[in-house]
Amino acid sequence: MAEKNSKNTDRLIAEARKHQQEREKTYRGQALKMYPWICGRCAREFTHKNVQELTVHHKDHNHDNNPPDGSNWELLCLYCHDNEHQRYEETRFGHLTIESENAAKATHNPFAELDQLLKK
């Protein structure tokens, strides 16, 4: 039974990835035809040699909102795109921190006896 569920899960994931790739190709191709190959944030220019580093950003962060006029898209380089999503996550969820009051603190100090080793 577990093997059957695992196969179904694998199939669903594979189908979802396939549909995502098809969707991305469609709006990416349209956006690259519509807009000049320039990052909308840093103004870096792209050519056929490096256009793979130019991404399509959804202004409303909804990847299923793909109007044919491209009004929800902007072209961003990889770095600006990552930065935009990081800013969105921080705004949406507030400032995220790794540490919390209940988190275990590190007790090992790799430099604890360094002064003794340097004296030798």
Summarize the structure.
The protein has one domain (2-95).
Kindly list the characteristics that best describe this protein.
8% strand, extended, single chain, 3 helices, two-stranded antiparallel ribbon, 2 strands, mainly alpha, 120 residues
Provide a descriptive summary of the structure in words.
The chain is mainly alpha-helical and 120 residues long. The protein has one domain (2-95). It is built from three helices and two strands. It has helices at 2-34, 78-93, 114-119, and strands at residues 54-58, 73-77. A two-stranded antiparallel ribbon has the order 1-2. The termini are far apart.
- Total number of beta strands: 2
- What is the number of helical segments per DSSP (H or I, 4+ residues)? 3
Q: The biggest beta sheet, please?
A: 2 strands, antiparallel
Structural class: mainly alpha
Q: What would the average pLDDT be, to the nearest integer?
A: 84
C-alpha-based Rg, rounded: 23 Å
- SS strand fraction: 5-15%
Which stretches are poorly predicted, pLDDT < 50 over at least 5 residues? Answer: none
The strand line-up of the biggest sheet is 1-2
Number of domains: 1
Any idea what the shape is?
extended
N-to-C series of helices and strands: HEEHH
Distance between the termini: 65 Å
- Can you give the helix content as a percent range? 40-55%
